[in-house]
Amino acid sequence: MTSNGPTIVVGSGLAGLTTTLELLSQNHHVILLEKTDKLGGNSAKASSGINGVPTKFQHNDDTVDAFKSDTIKSGKGLSNLELVDVLTLNSKNAIEWLTEELAIDLSSVAQLGGHSFARTHKGAGKLPPGFAIIQGITAKIDELQNATPAAVGILKNSRLERLVVEQQGEGKGLKVKGVEYKDTATGEVKVVLGDNVVLATGGFSADSQVLDKSLLHRFRPDLLKFPTSNGEQTTGDGQKIAERDVDADLIHMDQVQVHPTGFINPKDVACNWKFLCGEVMRGIGGILLSPQGNRFVNELTTRDVVTDHVLQVCEITAENEFGLPVGSFASVLVVSDEDAAKAPNHIGFYKFQGLLDKGTTKDLLQLLRKIHPSNANVSVQDLQLVIDEYNSAIAKGKDAKYGRTVFGQPITGEFYFGLTTPVLHFAMGGIKIDESARAINKKGQVIENLYAVGEVSGGLHGGNRLGGSSLLESVVFGKKASRSILGKSQTQQQQKPGHI
Question: Which parts of the sequence belong to the FAD-dependent oxidoreductase 2 FAD-binding domain (predicted)?
């Protein structure tokens, strides 16, 4: 199949790369714009994995209906049910595409918070799942580019400035014809025209620097106090420009996920950017302790609930040796040595970065005393009672106090521990889309030739996103957008004079 004109994909995270690869595989011309100097976006940092149901790697009774139910429950009733259907029904195919066609290892499966079954896939090797997936897809794109160099143009350091549009006629709305972008290396502003534009520009969880233009300041000014796990490029460019240029409908923009665990680097506690402490750390058996050394939540409930509990009981209320600001929040992740062996690459990376220590209950108490001065009155025996209580819940298979139902191994001898804090992580809101990822305007009309895939879109996750569904959304809706574009291209070819 050949295309009439190029599709312009803006953003090179997993959503943009999936769309690009799917189009290239059908000989469709693509121009890929990336704001930074490298491909991958925030997707390359994803550490917990990608959801899929049912797959050959699962060994449980999981079903699409169970995944759908968990997604709707997590979304607090705000999720677009049609989009949830698309996500969950296509999750198996997404895993098969990545593992069978692209040979990406996703053989290890974990159960994350808010999930009723283990369904989050990652590799058994050293690479984090997001990076492994990005690496696999970019390798395939490079292969296709080498075979047909004219098929794709990859423009890095290229920042979207506006959408090029034309009025279709009275009552018909606007039609997108291309983009204007700025080459940030030279400062030159350029225009490129195409038959379709796919926005894959990500969320806005780092959009806090210029307040009069900040989506966070506009929709959730109360969250500006939190650090972020997102790269500095995550400033909501697609949402802002689509609303301004084509009156795109922005929905659920106040629904921003605050992830409960971003690592605090003891050597730089004031840094506004944090390494994410992947949910897999709690999935393998990790627990959270308050600054006073107590458990306070079922660590495997949904992210929003864990975060709420952190905010309730983990506030820093006094000056401390770490220099954590009074009014900030800190909890302590604790992972047994046996459980750490389930995610050796995560543990090794975090330890290398100085974010995890290994020691005994006595060493953990020393950390807690640095966080909270009143812990001078806490003894090793007091702290050991907290750990023993959790170990007893593991032995019984029942956590009567907090309701946790999935456990790791007992915490004994030496174990790992590190400081964490809530971080801005994911924007559930964005550009309203239909089941084919076509953008919708404020009149409820499809905006011709404009698509939104991945975190730039809104409606799927509602009030809270399940761990592992961000990478999945990027694959599923990247494929949906590409199929819609290829279908249009085929129709246009058939309508040409002389077509047989």
Answer: 8-471
